[in-house]
Amino acid sequence: MPLICGIPLETSLAVYPKTIKSGVDSDQHPKSPRVTGSDGVVTRLHQLGEPELLERLLDVKGTTVFAFRMKANSEKEGDVYITRKGRVVEMGLVATDSSDEAKPTSGMRYTIGESAPASFGWGGTAAVARKRGTALALALWRNFHLKGKKVGTRRAIVRIEWAGMTSSKQTKYDTWMAEFLERVEQENKEYKIEYERLKAEIGINAILASGFEDFKKSSLRCRAECGVEVATLRCSRCHFAKYCSQVCQVDNWKYHKQYCGKEDTWAFGDEKFEDLLKGF
């Protein structure tokens, strides 16, 4: 279940009411789809720290209805929406020109807590829905915690509401979404201008090369996302994930153990990169 699953059990007991029998551990419900460490909104929000929306999403007793929607990055993608009515949660993708969430192009639906498991997806793979969930949550966190800074998410949030939402909260989020949209539109303009400038100045291959260098830098960062740019310790099992300390490695293990050894460790050497460029 890409949205609800993924709360580390040992932490959820201490911080959140145990409304579900799932998580990145051995207590996963046997009828739930397989969950990996980086899947879904809850995993990302919990790991990066955005409690308000997460609490409303999981508060099935105090908050009867929850709704959220974020615009797509481009016309090739769909808007991401999350709704919960009672214990039934749905996360899906809606065509960018549509406001009808009753007819999503793809999505996942499931229940929380004591209700009988009813998880299923449609119109696409679970991996796609989970990838969208992670991207959405990361964008959320960046814009809540890095206000005023350029973070390059280019996703406009257009709907945040829940049952019992006070007028002051509604005003707060309406104002925030308007400011957020303004920043996104400005970022889009600047991004397009800079891209066209670089394309004319250095060409598409050089742009790809720059992206390749960014990838190599990202592969050196501590997997626990502590901020260390060059980590020197490697996971002793997969020899791919990097950490700056044993403390970070232990803290991140509850996530990493789900996909240790399963990540694409294709050697991105310079020769491989030259082969990649031949495809453009």
From TrEMBL:
Coiled-coil zones: none
Keywords: Metal-binding, Zinc, Zinc-finger
This protein's record includes keyword Zinc-finger: yes
Residue span, MYND-type domain: 223-260
InterPro entries with a match to the protein in the record: Znf_MYND
GO MF entry, a single one: zinc ion binding
PROSITE patterns assigned: ZF_MYND_2
TM region positions: none
Protein name: MYND-type domain-containing protein
